[in-house]
Amino acid sequence: MKKTIIRYGFYGFLTAVVLFLSALVFGQGLSFETQTVLGYVSIVASLSFVYFGIKHFRDRQNNGVISFGKALGVGMLITLFAALGFAIIDYLYTAYINPDFIDQYAANSMSNLEKTLSGDDLVKAKEDFTSQMESMGSSSALAFFMFVIVTVIGFIISLLSSLFLNKKQS
């Protein structure tokens, strides 16, 4: 089991890093909204190894049998590798590659709020957003937030994969 988790976890980790760097190189000039969509696609792509890791473990190492709980455990451990990959690359990006990212994102978000809201709604939304940015304003906080997001999405993918792949001994 350990070997499968490390192998497929590494694949997820590597996919996260490669897709992030690809988006960095080829995604210059894209809107924040488009970059967000590409980011979620990258997360799902790197977490696809959860399904394949569970299937590999069931079919090749566990004689075609796996319980729901065991499958979920394997999936979550693979997920943690991908989440770590995203957290590390996100930290490096916001701390060293583009340290102005937080300010750029905040300015873009404020501009979008001004386009869609007015009056008291705008004032309230700006206050809420400013408060959020203060709590997540460091590279470490953003990396942790990314780790949590990927882990939550990975839990959902692990749960679905476990439902589809669990197979009791006959």
From TrEMBL:
Membrane-spanning intervals of the chain: 37-54, 66-89, 141-165
InterPro entries associated with the record: DUF4199
Entries under Pfam families matching the protein: DUF4199
Keywords of the record: Membrane, Transmembrane, Transmembrane helix
Highest taxon listed in the record's lineage: Bacteria
Keyword Transmembrane set for record: yes
Protein name per its UniProtKB record: DUF4199 domain-containing protein
Species of origin: Asprobacillus argus
Lineage of the species this protein comes from: Bacteria, Pseudomonadati, Bacteroidota, Flavobacteriia, Flavobacteriales
